[in-house]
Design a protein that fits this description.
Elements lengths: L4 E6 L4 H17 L2 E6 L2 H7 L6 H4 L1 H18 L14 H9 L6 H13 L8 H10 L4 H8 L2 H16 L7 E3 L5 E3 L4 H14 L1
Length: about 200
């Protein structure tokens, strides 16, 4: 990783990842920081911590607070928000597509579109038809991309990326990892992570 790069770890089912996915590109551009998008799955991470569901579901007061907090933040950022009728949704297919497109110009647009579908339009991103329609709306060859996403190699790559998330100590999303190994967790630490990278790159 070069000195002005930030790893952005996110999950399509994660409410606070929604805010960061929608905000991060212009902020990174302004800071002169290159992003490395790292889609992963929170489910295996939570299981390793002894949770079989989102902590926002396991602890109802925490969940109620989160949705109210999300509404306040979405209003501040000018982002639409509709509480999903099912939470958390299964982001497996979306993550596979995003990983398959890691080096493609459309990847960030796809991620934003999936987040809007989940958290602003209450569409079920676990459904292949929803993901297909998002790809088509972006003018992309949906069938070819879906085939690549569902290839054994790409499935394995997502598993390995999720395992790496646990190995480097991630316990939630969004998370941001700097070139010198600093971990910042949560949408409210996005600006701090970018400033950390920018400041140290300038000093170097």
């Amino acid at each position: 990783m070069n000195k002005q790069t930030l790893e952005f770890w996110f999950e399509f089912a994660s409410s606070y990842s929604y805010l960061s996915v929608m905000r991060i590109e212009p902020l990174a551009r302004a800071a002169g920081v290159t992003l490395q998008w790292r889609p992963f799955l929170l489910g295996p991470v939570f299981l390793s911590l002894g949770w079989n569901d989102s902590p926002f579901n396991i602890y109802p007061p925490k969940g109620r607070y989160m949705w109210r907090d999300l509404a306040r933040l979405a209003q501040r950022y000018g982002l639409p928000l509709q509480v999903p009728s099912r939470f958390p949704r299964n982001g497996l297919l979306a993550a596979r597509v995003a990983l398959a497109g890691t080096d493609e110009a459309w990847m960030a647009d796809f991620c934003r579109a999936v987040m809007r579908a989940n958290f602003a339009e209450d569409r079920d991103i676990a459904e292949v038809e929803v993901i297909r329609s998002i790809l088509a709306a972006l003018g992309l060859p949906a069938e070819a991309i879906l085939a690549r996403a569902e290839s054994p190699e790409n499935k394995l790559a997502l598993r390995q990326q999720t395992e790496k998330a646990g190995e480097i100590g991630l316990f939630g999303a969004p998370s941001f990892v700097t070139p010198d190994g600093e971990l910042f967790w949560g949408n409210d630490r996005l600006e701090d992570a970018l400033e950390w990278v920018k400041t140290r790159a300038t000093a170097a």
